[in-house]
Design brief:
Blueprint: H1 18-33, H2 41-54, H3 65-94
Helix pairs in contact: 1-2, 2-3
Length: about 100
């Protein structure tokens, strides 16, 4: 018998896809929460700003390695917080306390 290969994880999306992924996250949250997204907008805006600082466009100033490290840590913390908030909303929705979330 041949040994089975370990399941492969899908490749990470290219870095230039990150802004599009953030837009997709915004779209999915808006589709689920509707009006409830207004409370998440500041966090999503901050995620977008940090992402823009981490991935400047042509001609924009790049962050120093130290600033990049701080921005990455900040971004990771915001994503963790967003995940916690969305999980709480999902649980509330399943309990019937938040409309438009947790139906699945």
């Amino acid at each position: 018998m041949k040994p089975q290969a370990a399941p492969q994880t899908p490749p990470a999306p290219p870095i230039d896809a990150a802004p599009a992924l953030l837009q997709e996250v915004r779209r999915l949250i808006a589709a689920r929460l509707g009006v409830g997204t207004f409370g998440l907008e500041p966090m999503l805006d901050e995620l977008g700003q940090t992402l823009a600082r981490l991935m400047p466009g042509p001609g924009d100033a790049r962050l120093s390695p130290e600033e990049q490290e701080k921005a990455r840590a900040s971004f990771a913390g915001m994503v963790d917080t967003l995940e916690d908030v969305l999980e709480a909303l999902h649980r509330s929705g399943r309990a019937g306390r938040v409309l438009g979330w947790g139906e699945r």
